[in-house]
Structures are given as C-alpha cells and as structure tokens.
Design brief:
With 338 residues, the protein is an alpha/beta fold. Helix content is 43%, strand content 17%. The chain has twelve helices and twelve strands. Strands 1, 2, 3, 4, 5, 8, 9, 10, 11 and 12 form a ten-stranded parallel sheet that branches. Strands 6-7 form a two-stranded antiparallel ribbon. Helix 3 packs across helix 5. The longest helix has 19 residues. The radius of gyration is 19 Å and the shape is globular. 43% of the residues are buried.
Length: 338
C-alpha cells in the first residue's frame, strides 16, 4: 500500500498575501475532500519560498476549514522558536484539530535563513537538540526544570497536554540511513528528498531496525519521499503547466543564496528546469497513466510507503492545481489503495 500527502512550501505566486493564503485554504479543502492522508507545511523566512512564516497561524486557519485530514509543519525549525512557547502552540493546535496534528521538527535545512534571524548556523544543530529535549520533557511531565547551554527554565508548570498522548506523531527529515537508529525506537515518521537510492537506504534501514525491535510490520511508521507531481488530461499539457510553475518556484528556492552570492546547496536535487528534474527522477508531469507508472517505479525503487506530493507551487493557477489534485485522487490513488 502507498499513501499520499501534500507537501507545500506555500511559496509566493505573485499575488497579494491575503489572496495567496485564501487560495491555498480553498485548495486544502479540496485536498481533504479528495482523500489525501495529510498536509505538510514547510517553514521559511525572509524568502519568497515560504509565505507562511508562522506555520502555527496558517495551520490554525487550516484546522478551521477542515474536519478529517491530518496536518502539521514539516518542519518547525526549532532553533528559531522559543521551545516552551512552541510547546503551548502545539497543544492548542492538537486540541483545535481534535487530535489531527502531525508534529514535524528539525534544525532547518536552509541555514542561510538562520543568519537573517540572528541565529548562528553553527549553533543550530545543538540548539535543535536542546529544544527537542525541552519539548519531549514538557510532554512527559507536569513540571519542568531544564538547564542547557541555550535554554534554561525553572519550575515551568505544564498547564496543557495534547489530545494525542504522549504527543502528536513526530516527523523528521532524515538526511541519511544512519539517522534511523535514532528515529525507529521513537516511532518517528521520516521523509527524504532527492535520490531514490538514498530513500531506499533509509527505508531498508527503517524496516531492519523495526524488525530488530520486534515490532509489528503493520504498525511501521511512514517512510516518505517528496516529489513534484503535476497532472492534466495529457502529457503535453501537464508538462507545459509544470515547466512554467516550476520556473518561478525554483527562483524562489535559491533566492537567498543568489542574494548572498553563495552556491545553492540543493542544485543537484532541484535543477533549473522541470525537464531536468524529470530526467533525474525527482518529479513527474503527465496524464494519470503516466504518473501512475512513475509512482509504481518509485515505490519499487525507493521502498517508501508514503509520497509527499508537491502539487501546488510557483505561479500555478488555482484551476490547474485543482484539476491536477482531482485527477491524481480519482485516477491514480485508487491503484495504490491495496
């Protein structure tokens, strides 16, 4: 079985911010209606790549517009948050959603953004680990004392707990297979981007660790991968839509690096144009049968059980995005339901 969610940078399409946010909320209503398993929102700052600089605010609006779909950040960039304030927001969102929140955490992949926030990129990994420890301790206890290098708290009385105990399901961007030794014992869902071979190594390691732990294979967490996916009635139309929308998204993706005169760190994963992206297997645009064949190969080659589809990006129109979502849900997803 292969499940599908939506991954969204919520990047600028050139419209006014209010119009962009309302358009995305309407598409999220459609995403839920069409049966996608989850909606995953990225966090970015000081860049057109991410216009939901406060994921919690957008997710609160999304919760009010939906009833069933699971949703959450992928990821909260922990070094840019006060961990106890974030803990309180997480509890609020889990209650507002009736227990539908997914909790993605990480240090943040674009360390160039940390600099704009006044956070030393070299300190980000250690800040992430401390902030994560604070969150986990708050979930587990009614009173928290914490003495760290970056965070120090005394007699913090935990007033709120989430609906999902001990905490909402965790999500993590796994950089390599070695990270699974930490993720598997904690039942953390993982996602990777880029090469299918790396995803295969992560998936194989997760299943191996899961078996060693003696856990039920049916309870295996999500092992995901991100891919740009665009559908239309025929391949040519889908490729036309994808090519134009990807061009703007890609410019947003490396915007801060170009501004800083720095080398873009993900250029091998996200080449300049969509045809090159398709060539290396990191995306697909086509009719439903084309996309279905691609996903069957991806499932076999990468060993994943979850695909985070980037189906709304760049200056793609609402109508094109909605058509793509409907075609995917109605003509592709049923082939992977068993």
């Amino acid at each position: 079985m292969l499940e599908f969610g939506i991954f969204d940078h919520l990047d600028s399409d050139g419209a006014a911010l209010g119009a962009l946010l309302e358009s995305r909320l309407k598409l999220l209503e459609l995403i839920e209606a069409e049966g996608f398993a989850g909606y995953h929102l990225a966090e970015h700052h000081s860049t057109p790549l991410g216009m939901a600089s406060s994921p919690s605010v957008f997710l609160a609006a999304a919760i009010a517009r939906t009833r069933r779909i699971k949703l959450g950040p992928l990821v909260y960039v922990l070094p840019l948050h006060h961990p106890l304030r974030l803990y309180e927001e997480i509890c609020m969102l889990d209650h507002l959603s009736g227990g539908r929140l997914m909790l993605g955490v990480g240090r943040g992949g674009a360390l160039i953004e940390h600099q704009r926030y006044g956070v030393d990129p070299a300190a980000a990994p250690a800040m992430y680990h401390e902030a994560f420890a604070v969150l986990m301790r708050a979930f587990d206890s009614d009173m928290l004392d914490f003495a760290g290098k970056f965070y120090n708290y005394k007699d913090y009385v935990v007033q709120a707990k989430p609906v999902q105990r001990p905490h909402p399901p965790l999500w993590y961007g796994a950089p390599n297979a070695e990270a699974i030794a930490w993720a598997a014992p904690r039942r953390i869902n993982v996602v990777s981007l880029g090469p299918g071979l790396r995803a295969r190594a992560i998936a194989d390691r997760y299943r191996q660790e899961w078996k060693t732990l003696g856990r039920d294979e049916a309870a295996l967490p999500k092992i995901g991968i991100t891919r740009h996916i665009v559908l239309a009635e025929n391949d040519a139309e889908a490729k036309r839509i994808a090519a134009g929308a990807y061009r703007r998204w890609r410019q947003a993706m490396d915007w801060l690096w170009r501004r800083a005169g720095a080398d873009f760190v993900l250029k091998d994963i996200y080449p300049q144009d969509f045809s090159a992206l398709e060539k290396i297997g990191h995306g697909i645009a086509g009719a439903p049968v084309t996309v279905c064949d691609y996903l069957k190969r991806l499932q076999q080659d990468a060993g994943v059980n979850y695909v985070l589809c980037q189906m709304i990006f760049g200056d793609m129109t609402f109508a094109d995005a909605a058509r793509s979502i409907r075609l995917f849900a109605r003509e592709v997803m049923p082939a992977f339901a068993k």
